[in-house]
Amino acid sequence: MLFGNKFKICELFGIPVYLDISTAILLIFFIGMTGSVALDLAAMVLLLASIVLHELGHSLTARAFGCRTRDITLMLIGGCASLERLPYKAWQELLTAAAGPAVSFSLGVLCYIAAHLCRRIEFFAAALLIAAIMNITLGAFNLLPGFPMDGGRIFRSVARAFTSRAKATWLAMIVGRVAAGLLVFGPMLGIDHIWIIPLGGSIFMRLLIAWMIWKEGWREYQTALVEEQWGSRWDYSARVSPPPYGGDEDETEIRRGR
Hints:
Layout lengths: L5 E7 L2 E6 L5 H5 L6 H28 L4 E7 L2 E6 L6 H28 L4 H21 L7 H10 L5 H21 L17 H28 L3 E2 L2 E3 L14 E2 L2
Parallel strand pairs: 2-3
Antiparallel strand pairs: 1-2, 3-4, 4-6, 5-7
Helix pairs in contact: 2-3, 2-4, 3-4, 3-5, 5-6, 6-7
C-alpha cells in the first residue's frame, strides 16, 4: 500500500480486491481530461476495472501452478496481486508474468471493437475508446524491463535458461534499475515522449515508479540469494504487475517453504 489504508470492494474467484486510499489522487488526473465530468469518471472506473482484470490474469495463471494469491490491491499508479510465492519453474513464471499484459491487450482490442459497434451512442463509444487506449497502454507499460514489473519478470525467466535463478535475478535487477534511471532522467537526455508511462509521465509518476522498481528489485534479489544459499524453495510475498509494489513490512518476511 502507499498510504497505509485500503478498503475491500469485492471478491473475485475467492480473491479479495482492495482499493487503496491513494487512488483518490486519480481524480486529480482524470477530472477535466475529456471536458465531460461523467466521461472522466467513466474512464477512471474503466481503468480500475481493467487493472483488476489484468491482476486476475496473473492470479489465475499462478493458481494453475499451485500458487495462491492473498489479495489484489488497486493503487495510485496501478495494482498489485500479492502472491504467496511465484511459480518456481522459469516457464511458469514467464506465463504468469505474461498473462497480465495479454489480458490488457485483449481487453484493448475488445473495447475498440465495442466502441466501433456503439459509435452511434457517442458517450459509450467515447468511454470504450478511452478504455481501449488505456488497456493497450497498460499492457505496453508493464512490458518495460523494470524488474519486478511484468517485462522484468519475463526477462528473468528467459535469463534463467542460461544461468542460476540468483544471477538471473541480479541481471534483471540491474536492467530494471537502468530502466528506472531512464524514466527519471529521460527528459534530460531528450527522451521526453514516453507515452506509455501512466498518467502522462509526470515527474511525480516517474519518480514513484523508479523508486518502486529500485526498492522491490533489490528485495527480490535478496530473496533469490537466500533461496540459493539454502538450496531449497522458499515462500515469500511476491508482487506482480504495475508498480507500486509496496506493502506492509510483515508481508516481506521470508519463511521456509512447505
